[in-house]
Amino acid sequence: MPIRITRPGVHRVAVLGAGSWGTTFAKVLADGGADVALWARRTELAREISESKRNSDYLPGINLPRGLWASPLLTDVLDGAEMVFLSVPSQSLRENLRVVRDQIPDGAIVVSLMKGVEKDTRFRMSEVIAQELDIDVDLIAVASGPNLALEIAKEQPTAAVISSTSLDSATAVAAVATNSYFRSFVNTDVIGTEFGGVLKNLIAVAIGIVDGVGYGENTKASIITRGLVEMTDFAVAYGGLPQTLAGLAGLGDLIATCSSPLSRNSTAGRFLGQGLTITEIAERMNQTAEGLSSIAPILALAEARGVDMPIARQVAAVVAGRMNPRDVAPHLTTDDVPTLE
What we know:
By secondary structure, the protein is an alpha/beta fold. It has helices at 20-31, 43-52, 74-78, 93-100, 125-133, 149-153, 167-176, 190-213, 217-237, 242-245, 248-259, 264-273, 278-284, 290-304, 310-319, 328-333, and strands spanning 12-16, 35-39, 69-71, 83-86, 109-112, 140-144, 158-164, 182-187.
């Protein structure tokens, strides 16, 4: 394993999770000049990343920065880290935090790269982090935006939002997560930023469904437009700001996720539209489509605040097998009685 040599003025950061997004974000950080260690659960993957500078399982054909290295040992990866970026499946976050919490250096900023809601508790990822790590919320940040991993790994220009209750923390993370092809902006609306990343996944599943059954661009545009309304109503009901949903963490992420064949959630929806079951979809996809696991908790949260989410409800019906995918679009884009837009 490479020896980490301290370089004056260089930030030491750790990324936990060597899937497509974790590895891509580690590349972003390394290309921005940080000293980056990546935790890979499997020893053979850690070796490939460190020695060959490749992650052939998740980012085939992508050359990783020479200074980026990986290890299956959390103690090695977390040693001296000023910032810890978390990129694990949302439903396993709490379990993973219980393993690492005693190894995270005091004062380190912990950043969520995940876009999900915990099923059982309905907590956002930043809330799970605060509970399990028992750290000041000002040391917690979240990242979101139109961030399709493979495009970023190919260094196609894009932007993201770093959000924290502390503007200083958000600014510090954004400075490290910025390079020639990746620009990070900041805000302090953690609620709106997180929910934007979660909710767009549900709309992307809906887009995939109608694409899978063969509906065209008019239907998709209607769903995206009305979907943004649902997203905004929901986020505002929980304390988010409407302008956040109109920015990178909301509309920007929604457009990217709904329009790209690289989107896991849109892909899962397309399989649903083609008649595949959830089990069959899981067998075809080697990565998690967070939108599928977020449907139930989001609808429960919406009901608790009286937020009407017809698109999310119809997606849930298709997932549960209660609705034929071909019957979805008319329900998503029209009402029995005309209403004001």
